Amino acid sequence: MHRLPARGVCRERFLSQIISHLRLRPHGVRLVFSLGPILLLTFYSHAQDTGTAATEFHGKGAALTVIVHDSSGNPISSAAMVKLFRGGTIPAGQTATDHGRAELVAYDLGDFTVVVDAPGYANTQKEVSINANGRVEVDVYLRALSSNSSAVPGRPLLAPKAKKAVDEAFAALAADNLAKAQKHAAVAVSLAPGHPDVLYLQGVILLQQRDWSKAQTALEKATQVDPSLANAFAALGMALCDQGKYDAAVAPLEKAMKLDPASSWDTRWTLARAYYQQANYDQALVMSQTALSSSNGKAPQIELLVAQSLTAVGRYEDAAQTLRGFLTDHPDHQEAAMARRWLNGLAANGKIHSR
What we know:
Layout lengths: L8 H8 L1 H4 E4 L2 E4 L30 E8 L11 E6 L3 E7 L4 E6 L3 E8 L6 E7 L3 E8 L18 H15 L3 H14 L4 H13 L3 H14 L4 H13 L3 H14 L5 H13 L3 H15 L6 H11 L3 H14 L6 H13 L7
Parallel strand pairs: 3-9
Antiparallel strand pairs: 1-2, 3-6, 4-5, 4-7, 7-8
Helix pairs in contact: 1-7, 3-4, 3-5, 4-5, 5-6, 5-7, 6-7, 7-8, 7-9, 8-9, 9-10, 10-11, 11-12, 12-13
């Protein structure tokens, strides 16, 4: 299984903001954040008995295109019924797919649920929302049922040529050759565009390019096609973290660790940061300590998150000891100056004994 390369702005940016997020005061710690609002997409549609999409929005609303994919990730070839519900319960339109696509119209703004029924597939639904007029596409991935039970069959196979291209792309990424990785990825996409491994590869490359939003889209598709792909859930969590969507990042990161209890240290580190941003300081402390231990010295700056979490739970002397250890072992680290300022701040505010 291919691992996500250990890099990304989420890690770099988070450490550079530790001091700015921390304000000491006599009775504890006050954390100041300036995260912009996370914009959601929302849909609202008049009830459409026939499901025929109108062409005039009268100055508001949106055209909603639902693309239904089968278990291999390709647009479904058989007919499927797509239903739209406002608030999850109020019918707001329905139509059948044509070559895997269904067209509906939302005339107003609001929260919606898209429900897809197709013979041989599990009933699937997806929550969607919109806050702007225009045209929006929604991808829904179905999971096939076995002939005698509701179990989901094995993941789709990847043809030998496509697998070779995927393997070569990840090898190029490991060698820090992004251009070569993109070349092999293009071959994989041309051969198997809907396969979860190919979608995961696309997401990783987009993360390397720091195109967080597109990476999120590719990785969401990968996890929908193959809900057992732990690395894709981990990478999705990182993409969300890089966009400051820490609340949304927790679920896929926890899912990655549930699927793979031996998840890499950078997955644990990212989850620890997400916990911290949620003010779940006890969980952030445990997870950051685990990440530090499992990193085997590859990312000493994790010690700063450990110290930050210790400070947040009021263990100031332990935080100071962690910072001193970091400065002793890594005096020339790029974060050393910040660690010194932080240590001095603890002393100046009477949280620790000066040494």
